[in-house]
Specification:
Elements (H helix, E strand, L loop, with lengths): L3 E4 L4 H14 L4 E5 L12 E3 L5 H11 L3 E4 L5 H6 L1 H20 L5 E3 L2 E2 L23 H20 L2 E3 L1 E3 L1 E3 L12 H11 L3 E3 L7 E5 H13 L11 E2 L3 E3 L1 H9 L7 E3 L4 H6 L8 H7 L7 H11 L3
Helix pairs in contact: 1-7, 4-5, 6-8
Bound molecules: nicotinamide-adenine-dinucleotide and serine (SER).
The site of serine (SER) has 10 residues, from loops.
C-alpha cells in the first residue's frame, strides 16, 4: 500500500482529509503531520510533528515512512496573511518548493497542493469566472497562490513532476474550525445560529462568494489524485465550483430553521478581499477532464451544519 503524508493535518481541511484517506487506504498508510498537535478526531494512526519550513526534517519523515504521496496543506490563509505578508510569502512558497524539489529528485511520486479562488483579482470577470482568464490578485495570499500555480506547472513541464491542484472556494465544515480566511464567516454564522445569538458578519450582506461543503472538496481532492495522469491536463490548478451565496442568502436559509436568528453587518478589512474575488466559478475543465461534479446545495449544507455543529 502506498504511503501518504499530509502536511497541515490539524487544520480545517487536513483533519477531514486524513479521516477520509485513512478510511480508504488504512490508518497506517496515512501519516498526519503538523506544527500543532493532532486533532482528537484523527483517532489512531501515525503522526509526526513537522515544520514544513524545515526541509531536512521533511526529508527525514518521508524516508522514515517511505512516503510516496504528499498532500501539502500548511499555509497562511487570506486574512491572516494580510497581517503578516512576509511570513505568509515565506511559508506559502518555501513549503511548496520543499515538496516540489523532493518530487524533482524522484524521492516522492505525487503531490497535491491546493490553490484558491484568491488567485483571481479585481480585473477578473466576476460571474462564472473561467479557468483561463485575467489573474491580478491583490492580496499576498492570492499572489502566493498564483505564483505557486505557475511553479507547479513549471515543475510538471520541465521536470515531469506529477503535481495536482484545485482552486478551492471557501470551505464549510463542522469538524475543525477554519484557520483565518475571508470566507470563515460562512462557518462562524452556524455557531451563532446554534446558540441563537446575534451574529456580527464582517462582510456586507450582498457580497457573493464561491463556497463548498467540505465533503465535496475532499471528494474532489481524492478524485483528482486518483485520476489517471493523462486525464490531468491542467497542471497549474483546476477551477471547481460548489455553491455561490451572499451573507444575506445564507442568513435567510438558516432562518428557515432558526426563525428568531438575527444578524448585523459590520464590514472590516476582509470586505476589500472579498470584493476582489469572483462571485461564482466555471468548472467546465474539471468536469471534462476528471468528471468533477458538486453534490451539495445551500439548503443541504445548512441542514447538515445545523445538525452537527457543536454550539
Ligand atoms: P488551516 O489554517 O485550517 O490549516 C493549516 C494547517 O497548517 C494548520 O493546522 C497549521 O498548524 C498548519 N501549519 C501552519 N504552519 C505550518 C508549518 N510551518 N509546518 C507544518 N504545518 C503548518 O488551513 P486549511 O483551511 O486547512 O487550508 C489548507 C490549505 O488549503 C491551504 O493551502 C489553504 O490556502 C488552502 N485553501 C483553503 C480554503 C478553505 O476555505 N479552507 C480555501 C482555499 C484554499
Ligand atoms: N477560504 C480561503 C480564504 O478565505 C480561500 O482561499 O482565505
Amino acid at each position: 500500500m502506498k504511503k501518504i503524508l499530509v502536511v497541515g493535518s490539524s487544520g480545517q481541511i487536513g483533519t477531514e482529509l486524513v479521516i477520509e484517506l485513512r478510511k480508504r487506504y488504512g490508518n497506517d498508510s496515512v501519516i498526519a503531520s503538523d506544527v500543532q498537535p493532532p486533532k482528537a478526531q484523527l483517532g489512531d494512526g501515525p503522526f509526526e510533528t513537522l515544520d514544513i519550513l524545515d526541509k531536512d526534517r521533511l526529508h527525514e519523515v518521508i524516508l522514515k515512512h517511505q512516503v510516496k504521496e504528499v498532500y501539502l496543506l500548511a499555509a497562511l490563509l487570506s486574512a491572516t496573511a494580510e497581517k503578516n505578508p512576509a511570513f505568509a510569502w515565506k511559508l506559502n512558497m518555501d513549503g511548496l518548493f520543499h515538496v516540489l524539489d523532493l518530487a524533482k529528485a524522484k524521492i516522492i511520486d505525487k503531490i497535491f497542493w491546493p490553490s484558491s479562488i484568491a488567485v483571481f483579482g479585481p480585473t477578473t470577470p466576476k460571474v462564472n469566472t473561467p479557468q483561463f482568464t485575467i489573474m491580478e490578485p491583490s492580496t499576498v495570499y492570492g499572489i502566493s497562490k498564483q505564483a505557486g500555480e505557475r511553479w507547479c506547472e513549471y515543475y510538471a513541464k520541465k521536470h515531469g513532476v506529477d503535481v495536482r491542484s484545485i482552486r478551492y472556494p471557501g470551505l464549510i465544515s463542522y469538524t475543525s474550525p477554519p484557520g483565518g480566511g475571508t470566507t470563515d464567516y460562512a462557518v462562524d454564522i452556524f455557531y451563532y445560529a446554534k446558540r441563537n445569538e446575534k451574529y456580527t458578519c464582517f462582510l456586507k450582506e450582498n457580497t457573493p462568494l464561491p463556497m463548498m461543503y467540505m465533503e465535496d472538496a475532499i471528494r474532489a481532492t481524492i478524485d483528482l489524485m486518483e485520476a489517471p495522469a493523462e486525464k490531468v491536463k491542467i497542471r497549474s490548478s483546476y477551477n471547481i465550483s460548489g455553491i455561490s451565496f451572499t451573507p444575506k442568502e445564507i442568513y435567510e436559509q438558516i432562518k428557515k430553521s432558526v426563525p428568531d436568528f438575527q444578524i448585523e453587518y459590520v464590514p472590516d478589512f476582509r470586505q476589500a478581499i472579498a470584493d476582489s474575488w469572483p462571485g461564482s466559478i466555471d468548472d467546465t475543465e474539471a468536469a471534462k477532464d476528471w468528471g468533477w461534479k458538486a453534490k451539495y446545495n445551500l439548503s443541504a449544507l445548512a441542514q447538515i451544519m445545523l445538525e452537527h455543529i457543536q454550539a
